[in-house]
């Protein structure tokens, strides 16, 4: 009797398990297939903004009486004795010439003045040693041990004729030959003279390079709260 009861119980348990498994299988069979969602479409890449750099070249450089185009073409550094000294009216040792040059070719000078980039806190506030009051005005030489700076006398100047020298670079207006003349024209530009500049030989190259740099940097300038001088082309 006991054995029969155990057999009966086992059969009932097996039957219950079979029914449970059958029920699970039916649920899966009756469930709708999962819906496959398509992957999200990538955001379209915005078209690059084209810029007209004419406003940059035609704006006036404060305190000079000349436009940016007149300041960089021809590639000469001029001095107006009736205007305050300091780059781009002449060039003092302490003048942040690269920062000023970049400001006048990229920024709206009516909003951001020529000294805007020079005032960025990452720039050093002054030369590591004070400049001398007399010629040659440079700070004294440094070394280990430090060399005692001499006076402004006993200089020997090279009086060789100009034909003995070869021009390797033009730096009348700093950064122009470096940033606004492409690699393919650098040799031709350095071999040319300010007369060629005044004839407009390199104006298309200057405009093209400035346009390309503006298109690459305009969003960065606006992201820094600065106002580019270039206007989006229509």
How would you explain this protein's 3D organization?
- The protein has 234 residues and is mainly α.
- It has helices at 2-30, 54-58, 68-72, 97-106, 176-179, 186-191, 194-198, 203-223; strands spanning 51-52, 60-61, 66-67, 231-232.
- It has 8 helices and 4 strands.
- A hairpin with a 4-residue loop joins strand 2 and strand 3.
- The longest helix has 29 residues, at 2-30.
- The protein is elongated, with a radius of gyration of 37 Å.
- It starts with a helix and ends with a strand.
- Residues 1-12 and 14-23 have low confidence and may be disordered.
Low-confidence stretches: 1-12, 14-23
Structural class: mainly alpha
Major β-sheet strand ordering:
1-4
Using only CA atoms, what is the Rg?
A: 37 Å
List the total number of helices.
8
- The helix-strand sequence is HEHEEHHHHHHE
What number is the mean pLDDT? 80
Task: Please give the largest β-sheet.
Answer: 2 strands, antiparallel
Secondary-structure blueprint:
Elements: H1 2-30, E1 51-52, H2 54-58, E2 60-61, E3 66-67, H3 68-72, H4 97-106, H5 176-179, H6 186-191, H7 194-198, H8 203-223, E4 231-232
Task: Describe this protein with a few key phrases.
single chain, 234 residues, mainly alpha, two-stranded antiparallel sheet, 8 helices, 4 strands, elongated
Give a short overview:
With 234 residues, the chain is mostly helical. It is 36% helix and 3% strand.
